[in-house]
Amino acid sequence: MIKKFIPLFVILSLVALIVTIFLSVASQKQMIVIKEGNVKKVPLEMVVNKYQDSDCGMVIDNMDYISQVISPSGKTWFFHDHGGFIKWLEDKEFRDSSTIWVMSRDTKKWIDGRSAFYSLVDKTPMGYGFGAYEKKAPTHVDFDTMRLRMLRGETLNNPHIRKQLLGH
Predict the structure, then answer these.
(1) Residue 107 has pLDDT above 70, yes or no
(2) Given CA atoms 50, 75, 123, 45 in this order, what sign does their dihedral have?
(3) Is residue 45 helix, strand or coil?
(4) Which residue among 74, 83, 126, 165 is least crowded, i.e. fewest CB within 10 A of its CB?
(5) Is the separation of the CB atoms in 98 and 89 below 8 Å?
(6) What is the pLDDT of residue 21?
(7) Sign of the CA dihedral with 142 first, then 144, 147, and 149 last
(8) Strand partners, 46
(9) What does pTM read for this prediction?
(10) C-alpha–C-alpha distance, residues 31 and 150, integer Å
(11) Which pLDDT value is given to residue 10?
């Protein structure tokens, strides 16, 4: 009779162990998804593996393509791919009144996302291809063009666009 319960006991013990480990890791990380009180609307300092992307939920583990969106009330959201904040911001009532900061690839500093120039072919975390730059290059587009391309699905994730831009 006891032999029948041993497999069940082992399975329940393993499940309990996995749940305990998961909860322990989650509470230790304390990921930051949103910060309130940024009334000055300045870019906040970010640390690798401490912030969570507000669009896709992934941990921000690379600072090359990070961005921040700040609502008029001072709430700040964080992103690891510029295309993600475009998608996320689209249905927000503060879409046009938000402050957007993007990390520039050429000057390595925070710049106004609406004034930045965007590459279409950077290797970004979500594969959209939009790298932000302070200085315009012949192949870069402005914010409105980047936004439109993102909303239309004209990113490197689209095989037709990829072939058009990269030749493969």
Answers:
(1) yes
(2) negative
(3) coil
(4) 74
(5) yes
(6) 65
(7) negative
(8) none
(9) 0.82
(10) 27
(11) 73
Cβ neighbors of 55 (< 8 A, separation 6 or more) are: 79, 81, 84, 85, 87, 88
- Amino acid (1-letter code) at residue 130: F
Q: Which two tokens stand for residue 94?
A: 């503060």
Distance CA 1, CA 78 (A): 56
The one-letter amino acid code at 46 reads M
Element (H, E) at 83: helix 82-89
Tokens at 51, concatenated: 């912030």
Q: Could you state, in order of their start, the residue ranges of all structural domains in the chain? A: 34-166
Question: In whole angstroms, what is the distance from residue 127 CA to residue 130 CA?
Answer: 8
> CB-based burial of residue 68 (10 Å sphere; 0-12 exposed, 13-18 middle, 19+ buried)?
buried
Does the pLDDT at position 26 exceed 80?
A: no
User: Average pLDDT in the 15-39 region?
Assistant: 74
